Protein: Dehydrogenase flavoprotein LodB
Organism: Enhygromyxa salina
Amino acid sequence: MSGLPRYDVVVLGGGPAGCAAALGLARRGVEGVLVVEAGGYEDERIGESIPPDTRALFDQLGVLEGFLGEDHEPCLGSCSSWGADELGYNDFLFNPNGNGWHLDRRRFDAWMAARARDAGVEVWTRAKFVDRLGADERGVELGLQVGDQGAPTRIRAGFVIDATGQRSRYARRCGAQPRTLDRLVVSSGFFELPDAEISRLFRLTMLEAVEEGWWYLARLPRRRVAVAIATSPALHKASRLDRAQGWLAALATTRHILPKLLEAGASPVTGSLTVCAAPSFVLEPVVDTSSSPTWLAVGDAASCFDPISSQGIYKGLSDGLASAQAVAAHLRGDAEALSTYARGVHERFTGYAQQRAYFYGVEQRWTDSTFWRERGGGSERM
Ligand SMILES: Cc1cc2nc3c(=O)[nH]c(=O)nc-3n(C[C@H](O)[C@H](O)[C@H](O)COP(=O)(O)OP(=O)(O)OC[C@H]3O[C@@H](n4cnc5c(N)ncnc54)[C@H](O)[C@@H]3O)c2cc1C
């Protein structure tokens, strides 16, 4: 293993959580930090709305002013038909932090990586973690594929942060397993709005519960909106929601989403249907001090929330900050820092699970629906 490039901390995954962790470490004076990102920040990414409170996290990361200068679209809150046929409104009018944002995710993630670079972090794009090779007292050897041709490359890490998203690539390779609360499948289509004036009418995210799950409509950059249905894997398959015909048939049953699109003169972007998994889980363990060297997981790699919460990016940034504090303290010899971090992730997941059960329990309109019964709504609890 001699002669390999060695980094004190290697962050696998350069999404919001990984970049926040790397930036947080650099701000705490930790040197020799490398981010290994499989993509190149060119592809569209799912997940865009962030709450007003995210402002405080940007401030702690030292990037608030720069973020505000990026001019992401404001998000003024949400309206939802949930537990009732009519729309209820939950806007940010009285939030002391002001509005939230509908992020241009591709631009945001690339911007976060650039901020980490500015702070002294090395960021490799098109570099994919593929395997954990041998480990000794100098660290763990990681097998990567780098560049368009996927050239095999090996590096050594003194500490690993797994920020690879919901597949937790490194942690699961080390034997960690998700404790899963639910599995949803989300099928998203995209629409274009006729002009900027009409786009301004889409500053509230819209949620609509239906018998087989729930829909959301959220604004995207460049006069686009994302329209998505979340349901169980079985219902997704039975209703053929991965096909335009099945998806449009389901959309036609909505009471609010379709009329909103029609009223705005929105036109579908053809061939745009994308399907993704949306599990709810917490990883066991989130930190492994028994393996050498130690690793921890952040963001969706550590715990994944239902997209109904709109908390994924906030959680990723918050984990990034907390993990940076924990890893910096651990490297200075603090024996408790990593377990404090892990406890924080578990406590937050417990709170999330309670809130989620309450939220799904509010929907009582479809007592025969397996989707709602399985999630605590309808007539029976899970
Ligand atoms: C349908 C849907 C809608 C959502 N809507 C919202 C929303 O409105 N608001 C919100 O806050 N959240 C939302 N989310 C959740 C949000 O997208 C995630 O929580 C957030 O992206 C998590 O950030 P992360 O950095 O942990 O992971 P990710 O954003 O998934 O980043 C992981 C990174 O790791 C990289 N990677 C993966 N494997 C490897 C590897 N082997 N080697 C190197 N790099 C690797 C990936 O390329 C990626 O860049 C939604 C999720 C879904 C499914």
Q: What stands out?
A: The mean pLDDT is 93.
